[in-house]
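Chain A, query sequence.
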Amino acid sequence: VSTQSTGGNLLMTTLNHRSYAFCTDRWNPSQTEWNTLLTLVQPEEKERIERFKRPVAKGVYLTGKDNPDAKASLVGRILLRKLISENLKLPHEQIKLARTPKGKPYLYVNVSHSDGWVVGVCDSEFLVGVDVMGTGLQYINKQSSESFFQSFNNCFTSYEWDYITRGKNEIQRYTRFFLYWTLKESYIKAIGIGLGFTLSRIEFHVNDQDGTAILFLDGVAQVQWSFYFLWFSDVVISVAFGPPNEAVDVNSGLDLDLGFNMNFGKRRPIVTPFFVLNVEDLFLASNTRKS
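Chain A, predicted structure.
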């Protein structure tokens, strides 16, 4: 099925898989635009977004549309609704989002935001987890990789550290570090386990040629899981696809009969390019137009 939107190039996708990205660094909303988009999220989410404050000077804070964290959070919530609405063919107003006890919104859909990008993935047959991070270039002139890595000694295995530290220069060492970090985050987000997981229990073997990785959990290859990564603009994105029965909290947290196809294993995960949205797509997520 071919789909085309106002914010990017034509791409091929399927009825049960979506991959979207939105750059918040390039978005400078007007107050009217910001206020209208806030009406598209649930009241409790709107209140949380409005509480974001970033200090810029003594007694001076960035809030609302001027706060990068608030922008990323708002886009992330709208993107979740867009993914669900398109995948389940549901009107925007029928979607009620909640979170599991571990803080994960629900199965089959996941978003991440960092370093000016918000990304989201939805798939009707697999657990999904996605993570996006900058490639660490901001640290190169401030701190050596050796010094930076010391705080994360227990997060990676000796195999992973060997791969990271064998980078030919500081740029490669930092980018390899954040690649591994996003891979690990994509897995724990997919299963919904939160911050209590020991990251060194999982080890990734990456294939730089095709952008894939193999997961080992406690030394055992997890053949039912698939991992993909890509360098996108100035960030790295990692995506995890896994069996639904491995979710820590199987309660979806979505107040609807999901009707997801549970025929897990009948196909491999479908990997499509991330489709870059613009603000018009956010309004279209709820069939709302700017006046």
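Residues 1-15, 250-262 have pLDDT under 50 and may be disordered. The first helix runs from residue 31 to 38.
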